[in-house]
């Protein structure tokens, strides 16, 4: 069974966390299959935590979990913290494959796509 988890920072503002939850649900609903379980986890300041979501997906039968860091830049959380949690969870669940995808800002073509969207919005509002 395959799982997918969007990992976001988390906020003290509940509405910001709800926005991430809604985005994750819409994004995973738009994905064309491939994942039996989908979810989101927060790095800090909110729940569910990444560790809680990994634990829940493993308990539900996931044996291959892909994590998508919803971070624009390659900061401390992407470079150090997420790989550290993955190493801990790999030791805890040796039969589970855990894979970290590139963060949002590193997706090839993301910058061009965003530029096109912003230009479209600007032209529509002119």
UniProtKB/TrEMBL annotation:
InterPro entries: CbiX-like, Sirohydro_Cobaltochel/CbiX
Domain of life (superkingdom): Bacteria
Gene Ontology MF annotations: lyase activity; metal ion binding
Pfam family of the protein (one): CbiX
Keywords: Lyase, Metal-binding
PANTHER family for this protein: SIROHYDROCHLORIN FERROCHELATASE, CHLOROPLASTIC
This protein's name: Cobalamin biosynthesis protein CbiX
UniProt organism field: Oceanimonas doudoroffii
């Amino acid at each position: 069974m395959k799982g997918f988890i969007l990992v976001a920072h988390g906020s003290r503002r509940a509405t910001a966390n709800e926005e991430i939850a809604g985005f994750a649900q819409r994004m995973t609903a738009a994905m064309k299959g491939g994942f039996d379980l989908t979810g989101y986890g927060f790095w800090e300041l909110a729940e569910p935590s990444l560790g809680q979501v990994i634990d829940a997906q493993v308990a539900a039968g996931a044996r291959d979990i892909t994590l998508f860091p919803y971070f624009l830049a390659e900061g401390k959380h992407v470079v150090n913290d997420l790989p550290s949690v993955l190493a801990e969870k790999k030791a805890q669940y040796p039969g589970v494959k855990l894979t970290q995808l590139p963060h949002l800002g590193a997706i090839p073509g993301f910058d061009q796509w965003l530029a096109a969207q912003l230009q479209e919005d600007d032209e529509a509002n002119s």
